[in-house]
Amino acid sequence: MPLLHLPTITSEKSLNRRAEMRRDAAFIDARFNAPGTRVLVLADLRIPIHPTPDRAPPAIRWLSVPEVQALAAPADFAFLGEDGTGASVFACNVPPYHRDFAAVDKALSPLVDLRSLALQGVSHETDLLIAAEARALLGWHAHQRCCSRCGGPLHAIEGGWCRTCAGCGQSTWPRTDPAVIMLITRGDRALLGHELRFPDKFYSTLAGYVEPGDDVEHAVRREVKEETGIEVGAVEYVASQPWPFPHSLMIGCWGEALTEALTIDRTELSDARWFDRAELASMLALSHPEGLFVPPRISMAHSLIRAFVDGALPRS
Ligand SMILES: [Zn+2]
Asked: Do residues 37 and 88 touch, judged by C-beta distance below 8 A?
């Protein structure tokens, strides 16, 4: 049984990406034109859904290739992989400056952003994983229009997993930004912070990007020290989670605090506190007397806090 149950955006149940075939343009073309191929068409990176009554989780709205071709001609189709039946799955994005954007937006409505969809859930869990893959990959396309070396236009190759410059030949690949997210504990208490951008009464585990020259353990110790002044000793990797908002990889860790006195970096946090297990349990259950609460179930922070409350963290 896994230590953490990350219920939605995990990658192990997603598509077979067939990465070894991406450079075979004839294969990609054949898969695109094969019967059963389905396409997720995003409009300005939002995802079309079939609305459902009674607030039931919606279904993602898939199009066939003829339906996509009737809708518009978005330029860059990305080959996401094959599903469990062997059918191919593609995605594309119609940007807001596309001449057909208004018509596509209207035809695909309702459209939702990925974060809302992740919070709400979808009728088929695998579809959320595919939507996350599509959103991360196509978001990269949307923001990598020009060559960083010569400024020329880039175009997609390798089934949408690479963009290359016709002018100078430089290629670029989708980026993933590693971030550490860590539950720091000392005895029966865990350290949570309230970032300036957070909603009122919302507390979460500390987090920060891995910087050049960091290893994961150093990034954890450095971020905690910078934000709260706490010295961290032992650090253990716990689990990871793709977090396509827009393209991070959350590396979940546990760390043991060696000190208790907080020196809060007010440019990052408006508050940081030690919470004991009983108080954390009430924050998870939305029954805290001051109305304090923690991130929702889809997040690594939630899973780390729950593991501590349940006694699964620390491991020893
Ligand atoms: Zn170039």
From this structure: yes
